[in-house]
Write a structure and sequence with these properties.
The protein has 14 helices and 13 strands. The chain has about 350 residues and is of the alpha/beta class. Helix 8 packs across helix 12. The radius of gyration is 21 Å and the shape is globular.
Length: about 350
Amino acid sequence: MRIAIDVSQVIYGTGVSVYTKELVKNLLHLDRHEEYVLCGYSFRRDNELRRFLSSIDVFCEKKVIKLPPSFFEFLWNRVHLVNFEFFFGRCDVYHSSDWAQAPSGAFKVTTVHDVPILYPDYSLAKVVNVFRRRLRWLQSEVDRIIVPSKATRTDLMKLGIDRGKIRVIPEGIGEDVVPASGAAKRLVRRKFNITKKFFLAVGTVPRKNIERVIDAFKKTKRDIDFQLVIVGGAPRAIKSDEDIIFTGFIDKSDLISLYSSSEALIYPSLYEGFGLPILEALKCGTRVVTSRIGALAELGRDHCVLVDPFSVESIRDGMLKVIGKKFNDDKIKNFLKRYSWERTARLTLRVYHEVQSN
């Protein structure tokens, strides 16, 4: 069986990039029976895409086209012309990216990480519009849709997607996510001028709910003398001070050190398709405050402090509650064993094999 996977998005440093890299790497090490073709397109960053493909140490076919993603988004999502095979050759299974859905004679598989069309206020307008154009082809042509959570499956069903074609396959935790050493934790504190115990928040886009997190943190100052460290750049309306620190963009090693050093991750996002930071924080031995809605409640129900993300008071109470709350570490370790990229790849391979019964 010849399996073609669109890996165009590996170069963008997003959660989708991590998913694509880890899925491909684990599939190729797990499955030596099928024939894989890794495909991609980029105009200005095609060299980065080629470097990623050259880093793959398992033999497979690799194809890169020097054309912009906007070209394929127009060709495949809008006018829906020219089969995937015209550019990348014959395949039995075509696993598309979450950006463009090509027509194809193959068994069509795609991954939907979240459903921004249902939550337009929390997503970029460009992303919402791309999803809206692609939705037509998800409904009428795609054979199997992989989602990371039951909540995302429910969201797709609200849009008329047949439940029978959806497969829930959770994402995994990278092998590089382990508790940081004492030296690494001291270093990251100096790097970001962290002088007190601190809460950690990750991300500053609107759905991360950072304004309410800051308001809730300020209300804790009557009870505790903490800092709040926020990974990302400060929105224009928000100013940092000695107790509110914005890190800007950071690499993964610094993020792991911050997870490991913080008193708790504060993650009351308004909407997520999965919630990987919850797993990463727990893997680093850090407690978590997260939302009691959607995929985040699904993931954190038994191992996190759950709050109403629309209530500043609820988030504040969660911050204070998590400091002294005891969790069962053995149960958390057993819970985390469910989330490996190898398992993600194994379950995805099972979906590819559904072509044989189609």
